[in-house]
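Lab manual, section 2.4: Encoding a predicted structure.

Procedure: take the sequence of the chain (179 residues), apply the prediction step described in section 2.3, and record the output as structure tokens. A sample record is shown.
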Amino acid sequence: MSLSFWRAAAAGLALAGLVNSGHALAAGPCSPSPAHEAFDVQGLKSELMVTALSCGAQDKYNNFVTKFRPKLANEEKVLTAYFHTTYGRSAQRQHDDYITQLANVQSERGLKSGTAFCQQRLSMFDEVQVLDSAADLSNYAQAKDILQPASYLTCTAPNHPAPAAARSTTRSTRRTVRS
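Recorded output:
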């Protein structure tokens, strides 16, 4: 291969690194919101559904849904609120698009994996079956490498310090109360 090809490849990698590091710096620290957890759980639920349909494990999927029904319903409410807050009147359409895209990217990965997909993914049903609580399910969903169709901003708004005038008023009020 020619030297110019390698130079172009190196330049492309450097540019990609700069772009990605710029996004990381722009994003800053992120305090996950409840929507972040809901996306994780929805991703897991979809992954298990795709696995069940692809690998003939519908009974295992039904057991999962039955066991964690309250948690799954709660996370669905959180997602609905997220999409409503983020997209307003187009919330339902955006939410439906997300669910469709989620299933599509996960199915596509299954197709690319071929026969190995079921061997790799069926064990997830055994793993979720031994979980004891909704918190365990959330932690499991967060720890798994679940494919998502897009990155949604799911950070809570940062707490801004009170203006200086408000802080000084608060301090004087506190001193007055303590006297």
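Check your result against the sample. Residues 1-28, 157-179 have pLDDT under 50 and may be disordered.
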